[in-house]
Design a protein that fits this description.
mainly alpha; 416 residues; globular
Length: 416
């Protein structure tokens, strides 16, 4: 068995120079099939980084105006591109599953490696809750487009909780299916998602060509380093987190240079998509409602009508179902390789008949399931005076936690 494993493992020059490899470096290729193509990694990158609700969230800093476009470009140049360069170099030297966990172990030692792995992994499972919440907001947005602003779908915490639990269970089941099948579905839905974002941007163009006045002046903006602009830049940087995540599955690629496509063109594609989404919302949607998470649907509805808006909303919902699966599958690799290295129970390193690490994906779903039970059911019962505000507060705390810990992992990435 040892000879067979050694035959499958071909270390790079740097891996050989750094000494004995981790057990996970040798065994991952034996247990998980190499099925990911260059386009697959690009689709994973888009699912990880391109959250179109961010185009609505940045509208909350309305004073910046068209300067928002500048800060999207600045965030891409100063954060996303350096991250792509650093990630590409690390993957070139060590193309392994688990990415930052293995890279940091080799560069800084086992303690820092485990810490980096945790900082990279924990935000990933909390984002499962974010994706489910995005689906909730989109359903509420569809209700508003269909029946007016007084519509209040899924307003009670227990109703929201049922939806979130259904999303988690469904995507958890999808996560244990063959990776090749999952990627076929993901690529189709990601393509529709990109077309839907283009529709949001097109709504802004049609609005202006129809001689309408933009809701936010295109000539007045606020550049500088004031508090509001710093907040805007920070929000944009947070929206660009995740460049390293597709390489959690680097050992499962069909070609050694497979990451090159998303590392070179992914940042540009994401930037264009965010600029289009921001433009459509800023030009078409009244400022009073532009910061709602479904304002992209409002932009399409105002220009093209409710039916197309609902269709775009359904595409976005399908995308966030894919997002939940992709996050679950990619971050499960960190647990999987840690288990192979005996830093977690070895039972987590087992795969099912589809060669999927089903135990790690199921553990992650179970953790988020418990968090959702507390957020939407137990918490509101223990603090009835808070009502629906309790769920919102817990969600905001979880997202703040995600942000802080994920940023720590990015600092470690650059140190590597």
């Amino acid at each position: 068995m040892t000879k067979k494993l050694e035959g499958r493992y071909t270390p790079t020059i740097l891996q050989s120079a750094l000494g004995d490899p981790l057990r996970s470096e040798q065994r991952t290729g034996e247990l998980l099939p190499a099925v990911l193509s260059r386009v697959d990694l690009l689709a994973i990158f888009i699912a990880i980084v391109l959250f179109i609700p961010n185009a609505s969230i940045v509208q909350a800093t309305q004073g910046a105006g068209p300067a928002t476009y500048f800060y999207w470009i600045l965030g891409t140049v100063t954060f996303l591109l350096p991250g792509a360069i650093a990630t590409g170099q690390l993957n070139r030297f060590m193309p392994v599953d688990g990415s930052i966990y293995v890279w940091t172990h080799r560069a800084l030692g086992p303690l820092w490696g485990f810490f980096a792995g945790f900082c990279a992994w924990f935000p990933g499972i909390l984002v499962l809750l974010s994706a489910a919440d995005a689906i909730l907001n989109l359903l509420q947005g569809i209700g508003v487009q269909l029946f007016g602003s007084k519509t209040n779908w899924l307003a009670d915490p227990w109703q929201q909780g049922i939806l979130v639990l259904i999303v988690l269970l469904f995507t958890g089941w999808l996560s244990v299916l063959p990776l090749r099948l999952l990627m076929r579905m993901a690529k189709g839905i990601v393509l529709l998602y990109v077309l839907a974002i283009f529709t949001v941007g097109l709504a802004g163009v049609v609005w202006l060509l129809s001689a309408h006045t933009p809701q936010v002046s295109l000539t007045k903006s606020t550049l500088g380093f004031g508090g509001q602009n710093i907040v805007l830049y920070g929000v944009i940087v947070l929206g660009l987190l995740g460049i390293e995540v597709p390489l959690n599955m680097a050992a499962e690629t069909q070609q050694p240079n497979a990451p090159g496509l998303f590392l070179r063109w992914g940042p540009l594609l994401v930037l264009l998509a965010y600029l289009l989404g921001t433009f459509g919302v800023m030009v078409v949607v009244p400022m009073s409602i532009s910061s709602t998470q479904y304002s992209t649907l409002t932009a399409v509805s105002i220009v093209f009508g409710t039916p197309l808006s609902v269709l775009v909303g359904l595409i976005f919902i399908a995308f966030f179902l894919v997002v939940t699966v992709v996050y679950n599958v990619t971050f499960a690799r960190i647990l999987f390789v840690s288990a192979l290295d005996h830093r977690l129970p070895s039972a987590l390193a087992r795969v099912n008949r589809h060669a999927a690490p089903s135990r790690t994906t199921s553990v992650q779903i179970a953790i988020v399931f418990v968090i959702a039970l507390f957020t939407y059911f137990l918490g509101p019962l223990l603090y009835p005076a808070e009502g629906a505000n309790f769920s919102a507060k817990v969600y905001n705390i979880s997202q703040a936690t995600t942000t802080v810990i994920w940023c720590i992992s990015m600092v470690i990435l650059f140190l590597d």
